From TrEMBL:
<protein>
    <recommendedName>
        <fullName>Esterase/lipase superfamily enzyme</fullName>
    </recommendedName>
</protein>
<dbReference type="InterPro" id="IPR029058">
    <property type="entry name" value="AB_hydrolase_fold"/>
</dbReference>
<dbReference type="InterPro" id="IPR010297">
    <property type="entry name" value="DUF900_hydrolase"/>
</dbReference>
<dbReference type="Pfam" id="PF05990">
    <property type="entry name" value="DUF900"/>
</dbReference>
<dbReference type="InterPro" id="IPR014586">
    <property type="entry name" value="UCP033909"/>
</dbReference>
Length: 400
């Protein structure tokens, strides 16, 4: 053995290792600041709400252990699911995408509040509540919208974000919130990841129950680490041959998914063989949280920070790139839900308006887009019109 050569090689590699170590430490610090305020919220139980305040009742399924106080659910994992209806109040004067949390006495004219809470005892009571909500809608709007929150969320913060989305995007249908036991603390990324795998059976049971409701179809919206939970659950359902559930799911929207591209490909290989689900992935190359997650794993990108459509061109899906937009989120991990411009674009549209792709280079209000079709994948690049005008001039959809 060339001992001298070994030590020379080791010394030469040391700067590279230090650089890698610095990258990992930086990634850990960035993750520690992700959504640093995930508040624990309490039920306000107002006698009534002011007339100008909007109400967003949300049906909830929680895999978190109850706290038996006004916070309702904590970070601990439960052995059984809990069911309920929780009404979030939305103040009248606010910028779309923004949530102002109460820090003292909640004021529904200024804050989002957890206004009312009702416990539903068992699956049948929950199914009855679902069907009553669906029966109040026009037939074309009888959609179940299932939301699976991401990393570092409390029960209340995920509920508020879902209510904000339903309100601002004017999403038709009945909202169903699946609350898995995230620690709600940025230090416990590994705890949350373990909770994802523990919660697969709970989400599968929820989707089976939802498939029995009198809805035309089910739409799933998942954020960040919730995308991993959603995909793993769909993979389990596919392997079990549970077509009764899978056939009811029309679309799955993955927002900033914290998932490896290779893992996603393996999941879709199973899911795609058993279903016709349409997948739409919202990405941003400026997502600092996903950059940190990728660095911790020795990767360049996560699915939600995809840099090239070529990486998934063999998969049947739509990728919507929103890298061009800024929001109040310094980590740009919630661009879609917090950008007033994107909310204005998608508000009132079905399935985020991408089922029937608009023509390439089209402009709607202050926004512009370009479309690339690469084998089976479709890429839609959205940008503020002023910034994108030069980039898309003279271009159109590209078929490759």
């Amino acid at each position: 053995m060339d001992v001298g050569g070994y030590f020379l090689a080791a010394a030469d590699a040391l700067p590279r290792r230090l650089t890698a170590l610095r990258a990992v430490i930086g990634a850990m610090l960035a993750l520690a600041s992700v959504s640093a305020c995930a508040p624990t919220l309490r039920v306000s139980d107002f006698a009534e709400l002011p007339g100008d305040v909007a109400r967003e009742p949300v049906l909830t399924v929680s895999a978190r252990a109850p706290t038996h106080d006004a916070t309702l659910f904590g970070r601990e994992r439960a052995e059984t699911l809990s069911y309920g209806v929780h009404t979030v109040s939305v103040p009248p004067d606010r910028e779309p995408g923004r949530i102002r949390y109460p820090r003292g006495t909640p004021d529904p004219m200024r804050h989002f509040t957890l206004a009312f809470a009702e416990t539903l005892h068992g699956e049948e009571a929950f199914l009855g509540a679902l069907n009553r909500k669906l029966s109040q809608l026009d037939e074309e709007e009888r959609i179940l919208v299932v939301f699976v929150h991401g990393y570092n969320e409390t029960f209340g913060s995920g509920l508020f974000r879902f209510a904000q989305m339903m309100h601002d995007f004017e999403i038709p249908g009945v909202p169903l919130y699946f609350a898995w036991p995230s620690a709600g603390d940025p230090r416990y990324y590994a705890y949350d990841l373990d909770s994802v795998f523990i919660s697969r059976d709970g989400l599968a049971s929820t989707l089976r129950l939802a498939s029995r409701a009198q809805a035309d179809r089910i739409m799933i919206i998942a954020h960040s680490m919730g995308s991993m939970l959603t995909l793993e659950t769909l993979r389990d359902l596919s392997e079990a041959g549970d077509s009764a559930v899978l056939n009811r799911i029309g679309q799955v929207a993955l927002m900033s998914p914290d998932v490896s591209v290779d893992v996603f490909r393996s999941q879709l290989a199973t899911i795609g063989d058993a279903s016709d689900i349409d997948f739409i992935v919202f990405t941003s190359t400026r997502d600092r949280a996903l950059q940190a997650s990728a660095a911790l794993r020795g990767q360049t990108d996560r699915l939600g920070s995809l840099r090239s459509i070529e990486e998934v061109s063999d998969l049947r899906l739509t990728v919507v790139d929103v890298s061009g937009f800024d929001t109040a989120d310094p980590l740009r991990h919630s661009t879609l839900t917090m950008s007033p411009e994107l909310i204005a674009l998608f508000a009132g549209t079905r399935d985020f308006g991408v089922e029937a792709a608009p023509r390439a280079g089209a402009v709607r209000g202050p926004l512009s887009l370009s479309i690339n079709v690469v084998r089976q994948a479709t890429e839609i690049i959205l940008a503020p019109a002023a910034a994108a005008a030069g980039a898309i001039e003279g271009t159109g959809a590209r078929q490759q």
